[in-house]
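User: Before I run my own analysis I want an independent prediction to cross-check against. Here's the chain; please return only the structure tokens and, at the end, one sentence I can use as a sanity check.
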Amino acid sequence: MAFKTALILLLQVSLLAAGVISEDVVFVFQNQCPYPIWLSSGVATGYTNLKMKSDTSKTYTMPYTWSGSIWARTNCSYDKTLNFSCETGDCRSGSIICDSLPAIPVTLLNFAINQSVVHYELSLKHGFNVAAKIQPDGGYLVDGGFGDCPAVGCVADLNHVCPPVLSFSNKNGANVGCYSPCDKFGPPKYCCNVPGCHPDPYSIMFKHLCPSAHVYPGDDRPPIYGCTGFKAINVIFCPIV
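Assistant: Structure tokens:
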């Protein structure tokens, strides 16, 4: 029996090393914003405890195969009819559980999980509502990359520098989001997505402030990174710099 157990363990280790059996894909969400947020995803992750108070964290084991967007909703509440809605990032479902992409403007954190490999990017292509950063804990790049897995994000609060023509205000007149030029004004001038096109001045400003984020439709710098061998993927909202 002991020999059989040892043989099974040896086989599992061999399969793990070969990538046939994967370790858990752990995401650690941290809310460093001075206000609560509600986690959201366009594709179900199986989690329902989505509210995060300020200065708290949640650890989730993600599905082995999963692809979708994650974002933060702000200033959420139920009305008298128990309809759930949020000031930014609203799912437009009337429920705390999302089943669709959010209302814009919104900061999107995009992931593709395939066993132990996670591809990730932070996108401002549909605007900005909350500063965020994706920071793998360890790991190394795959799929054409090499070296350590870098952090990507937009740690600047673009709501403070958003041009008035792009600003999204709440019912009290406070600026709580910033539209992307492409969503606000449309193509072709503001939706650079073909070879040889030049980003508009607004996109250039946002790229300068958030160089590791993808800002306009044709923005592919940096590439979408693929990472493996990490302890966890840290997702930090309102990262302290």
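Sanity check: DSSP finds three helices and 13 strands in the chain.
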